[in-house]
Amino acid sequence: MLKSGKATRFPNLVQRDDAVHTFEMQTVTANTIQVVGLELAIAWSDGTESFLPLEFLRRHCACAGCGGEPDVLGNVVRPKNEYTAASFELRSIARVGGYGLQPTWGDGHSTGIYSYLYLKKLDGLHGEAP
Ligand SMILES: [Zn+2]
Question: 97-114 pLDDT, tens per residue?
Fold first, then answer.
């Protein structure tokens, strides 16, 4: 047990350890991104691959306009989105730092940023879907 004086001597160091730990959980990055047919194929830095259907991806757009935001009670009210065939066509996709991907869709929508963690989570979701 450290004396109280010693325990509080390097508070910043303790916080930095936590930050590093959090950072390490988010270091999976996309090595290769490619559209294959109607799917976005991602080769991850951890050696796994994801194949995400473009329509599925668009319907799970993470931007505030598509995903809705929690109200004061914490309920998420999803707005009714109007999609066209162009909504599910990927016009281009940009990398956002080492953080994620920002697609531009055929209907011009491009405000959704998909973090790598979110993309991995989505991959698990559509794999379990019936
Ligand atoms: Zn959106």
Answer: 888 999 999 999 999 999
Cα angle 34, 100, 84 (rounded to 5 degrees) comes to: 65
Q: How far is the CA of 123 from the centre of ligand 1 (A)?
A: 18
Q: Is 6 exposed, middle or buried (0-12, 13-18, 19+ CB in 10 A)?
A: exposed
- CATH architecture designation of domain 4-128: 2-Layer Sandwich (3.30)
93 near 104, Cβ under 8 Å?
A: yes
Per domain, the residue ranges of the chain are 4-128
Q: How far apart are CA 18 and CA 100, in angstroms?
A: 22
Distance 43 CA to ligand 1 centre (A): 24
Outline where DSSP puts E strands in 1-130.
30-36, 39-44, 49-53, 90-96, 100-105, 114-115
Query: pTM value?
Result: 0.70
Average pLDDT over residues 7-25: 48
pLDDT band at residue 49 under the 50/70/90 scheme: very high
